[in-house]
Every structure is written in C-alpha cells, then in structure tokens.
C-alpha cells in the first residue's frame, strides 16, 4: 500500500528535476529532497516517533520545514503545524489535545518552549532554518534509507486545528487520500505540468502554503521558488522566473503598488487567489494594470479545496468555480430541502472531505449529515452551470490576511479585562487584509478605559493577527429578541471604519 502514502506521489520517479529553489541559496532536486526526508525520518525514529505519532512543529519558513513535514509522511507519522505567532498558552492548549511525541522548534525557542513540551509529555527537539539544532544534527548523521510506510488512503497524514463559535480548537484529521486526491485534481483543473514554476510566498504553518500549494506543484512534477516570506520587491524580482502564483488577496493588493508589476508577469499563466474573499474591485484593478485575470478557488480546513475556477477562465470574477473532479456539492435550503442549484448552506462529499475531528465525536455529529455529507457552514449560490459563488458565512468567522479568527476566542480574552463587562468581536472590510478584527464592549462603569492598554493586554494572550485593530466602548451591544448579539448590525455600523464610502 506504499503507493497510498502521499510521499510516493510527491517524489516517485522525479529524480534530478529541480523541486525547491531558494533565491540566493540552494536548489533542491526531487532526489535530494527525498534523501533528506529519509535522513530526517531516521532522526525522528531516534526520538521515538513511530507510525501514528503526532509531530508538532513551530518553525519559521525554510526548506527544513518541508523536509520535516515530508519525513512525517514517509514514516506514517502525523504532522501538526503550529502558527508561529501563537502564544505559549495557545500552544499548550493544542499540545494537550494533540498529545504529540515530539515538539520541534527553532533553537532560539528552547527557553520559551522546553517546559511547554515537558508539560505536554512531549520530547522537545530543535531545528533551525540553517540546518542547526538537535534534529538537524541527528539527521546529518542518519542513513537516508528510512522506508516509506505502507499506509491506507484513509490513514491520517496531518492534524490541522480549527475552531467554531465556541472558540474550542478542533483537530481536523486530514488523510493521505485527501491530500493526494486534492493535489491531482487541482493539477488537472489548472493544467499543472513539470515545466511549471510556482512562486511560493505563503506561510507554511497554514494549509494553503504547506499543503495546497506545495502538494499540487510537487505532485505535478514542477518546481517551486521558495521565498521565506511575502515581500513585494522580492516577489517582483522572482516573478519573471515563475509561471504560477498562489496567494491571498493581500498579496495582490500590495503587488499593485509596485510600478513594474506588469513587466514582471510576462511568463505568468495562472494567478490564483484563495484563503479569503477576493474583492471584485481588486480583481478588476489587477486586470487593468497587468492584463492578467486573478482566478479563485474555495475550500476549508476540513474539506481541502472544494471548487476552483479553471485556468484560462476570464469571465467568472466574484465566483469561486466548479467542484473539483471527484467532489460533489449540494445546498441545504430553507426547511432542510436539498438542491443542486440556487442558494443555501453548502455541503460536500468526496475525496476532499476529512476523516473527522480528533477525539471529538460530538463535533463529528454536528459537522456531518445523516447521509455523510460535510456541512461547510458557508452560504453559497450554485448557478445553472454548476458554478459557485459565496454569499456569506453561516457562522461569524473572520478571515484577515488569509488567516481565520474566531470571535468567541477573542471575546473570551477581552471579557477577563477589568474595564469590560461584555464584548463582541466581528470583522469589517479592510483594504489590505480583506477583513480587520474589531471589538466593541459594554463597559464596567467603575473602571477607566484606555484602548491602547486593552490592545496591548490582548497581545499577551493572543496571536497578533487575532488582536483587534480597534476596541470601542459603546453603551449597549445590539441584540435580537432572544438576547443573541446582532453581529450583522455591528458589521453594518462599523463597515466604513477602515475604508472610505464609495
């Protein structure tokens, strides 16, 4: 069953073709990466990792992250990426749930995280971007012959944590079959081939960068220009050597500020936007300035990429495309009726849908219909041609710069602060991040209020992207007759906070 291991789809038969290209650094062929994953897998075995163990990692972007993640696949271990902006409290909560065998972090994080790993009964191992640290040393001395584990298609490859309106993290179990099927389907829809070169400026603690972008390109046999982060001038310098780019809307908004953007894109033939809604005005301006059309795709942590606009499509701005091959969609309309067209809450099934939530059968029961379809929680329109347009979210998820923020988690932190009686967190339009996190609160009249102090205090408990950009005191939070906070009213009232009225 080794052919079911995603590692096989990523590396088999690709030899000396370029896989990862690091500007002003090394070029890794498929064979070199494959050997490196073998050594890293052997190093993980020395730390006690066996098939089915979780390997959590909090690492800055570098080829070492790719090698570590693919070594986990090779072993049949389960990779668990952590956002590099998480606080110790956030990390500790996730480790308590995932129960990893090992936590891997940069050597500079030893003093910060060694005790966090110990409290989670995990071994702490260091791995630096420059191939330094304990794990790098073990790998350098290890053989590259670790076998590729025989796994079934539905064996777990990764656990990616997401939350609901309760704010409690849930670990989505992503299988080898999910990842391989999605990569192949995207390759088919976008026409990816070994001659393509992907410009990769995405973070690799997120499914978009670590799984969707890398897997689809490497399974297709192409190469990846692997930038450490998004910097507009570095992207402009690399674009002439690329044919494909995958990014979030914020990337494209910032690139439009560069005077030589059109010339840099001479070779580009597919430009994909995802992880957050693409503003129609941004898409139109991009086409005007560059002559290229941005196309969208849509997915979720639990269901990978569900729909995509095919390469070469120029007339679907504002739509997120058709279901990928092997994926089905339906709508749940008013009264619970199911339909293939119209408007409703989107459900899906197919090779894309995860195996369920880690040790959380109650969440599984809520997420799946009686006949096995996954409820995305998104409200969508499907037209007569089967194309999908997103209309909103059933829940109040905020997507800022391509990252998910769950209001309840932020409200829980704010509500502990002395000036705040009760808070409400919501998203409003932002010209750079797509959405910005904003909070309002009903004040405790006995305590003075200082917005900057509240924001600073929130940064002690929350990753930076979750911290509200503004926090306002208001006399009363709007509520409906049932006492539920009316976040739609809040979004409408504050929607022009960061953008000017047209």
Plain-language structure description:
The structure is a single chain. This protein is of the alpha/beta class. Among the domains are: 143 residues, 3-Layer(aba) Sandwich (Rossmann fold), CATH 3.40.50; 97 residues, ANL, C-terminal domain (GMP Synthetase, Chain A, domain 3). 31% of the residues lie in helices and 27% in strands. Strands 2-1-10-9-11-12-13-14-15 form a nine-stranded mixed β-sheet. A five-stranded antiparallel β-sheet has the order 17-16-18-20-21, with no helix packed on it. It has a four-stranded parallel β-sheet with strand order 4-3-5-6, sandwiched between helices. α2 crosses α3. The longest helix has 17 residues. The radius of gyration is 23 Å and the shape is globular. The protein starts with 5 loop residues before the first helix and ends in an 8-residue tail after the last helix.
């Amino acid at each position: 069953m080794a052919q079911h291991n995603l590692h096989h789809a990523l590396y088999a038969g690709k030899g000396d073709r370029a896989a990862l290209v690091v500007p002003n650094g090394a070029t890794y062929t498929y064979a070199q990466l494959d050997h490196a994953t073998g050594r890293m897998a052997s190093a993980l075995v020395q730390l006690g990792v066996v098939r089915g163990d979780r390997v959590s990692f909090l690492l800055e972007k570098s080829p070492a992250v790719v090698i570590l993640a693919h070594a986990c696949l090779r072993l049949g271990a389960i990779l668990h990426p952590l956002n590099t902006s998480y606080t110790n409290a956030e990390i500790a909560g996730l480790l308590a749930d995932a129960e990893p065998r090992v936590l891997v972090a940069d050597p500079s994080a030893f003093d910060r995280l060694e005790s966090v790993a110990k409290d989670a009964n995990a071994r702490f191992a260091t791995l630096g971007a420059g191939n330094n640290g304990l794990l790098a040393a073990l790998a350098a001395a290890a053989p590259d012959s670790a076998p590729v584990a025989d796994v079934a298609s539905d064996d777990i490859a990764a656990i990616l944590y997401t939350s609901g309106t309760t704010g409690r993290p849930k670990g989505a179990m992503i299988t080898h079959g999910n990842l391989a099927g999605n990569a192949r389907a995207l390759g088919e829809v976008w026409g990816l081939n070994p001659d393509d070169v992907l410009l990769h400026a995405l973070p690799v603690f997120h499914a978009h960068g670590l799984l969707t972008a890398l897997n689809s390109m490497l399974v297709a046999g192409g190469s990846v220009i692997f930038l450490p982060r998004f910097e507009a001038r570095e992207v402009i310098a690399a674009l002439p050597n690329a044919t494909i780019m995958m990014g979030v809307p914020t990337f494209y908004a910032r690139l439009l500020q560069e005077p030589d953007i059109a010339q840099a894109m001479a070779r580009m033939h597919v430009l994909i936007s995802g992880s957050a809604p693409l503003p129609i005005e941004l898409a139109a301006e991009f086409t005007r300035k560059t002559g290229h059309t941005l196309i969208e795709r849509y997915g979720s942590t639990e269901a990978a990429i569900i729909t995509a606009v095919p390469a070469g499509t120029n007339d679907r701005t504002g739509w997120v495309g058709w279901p990928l091959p092997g994926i089905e969609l339906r709508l749940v309309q008013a009264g619970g009726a199911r339909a293939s067209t119209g408007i409703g809450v989107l459900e899906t099934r197919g090779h894309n849908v995860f195996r369920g939530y880690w040790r959380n059968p109650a969440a599984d029961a809520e997420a799946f219909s009686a006949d096995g379809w996954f409820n995305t929680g998104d409200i969508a329109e499907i037209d007569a041609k089967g194309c999908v347009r997103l209309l909103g979210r059933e829940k109040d998820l905020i997507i800022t710069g391509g990252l998910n923020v769950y209001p309840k988690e932020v409200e829980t932190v704010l509500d502990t602060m002395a000036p705040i009686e009760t808070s409400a967190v919501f998203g409003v339009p932002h010209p750079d991040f797509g959405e910005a996190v904003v909070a309002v609160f009903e004040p405790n009249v006995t305590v003075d209020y200082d917005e900057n102090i509240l924001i600073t205090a929130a940064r002690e408990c929350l990753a930076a992207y979750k911290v509200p950009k503004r926090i306002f005191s208001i006399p009363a939070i709007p509520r409906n007759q049932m006492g539920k906070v009316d976040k739609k009213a809040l979004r409408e009232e504050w929607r022009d906070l960061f953008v000017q009225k047209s």
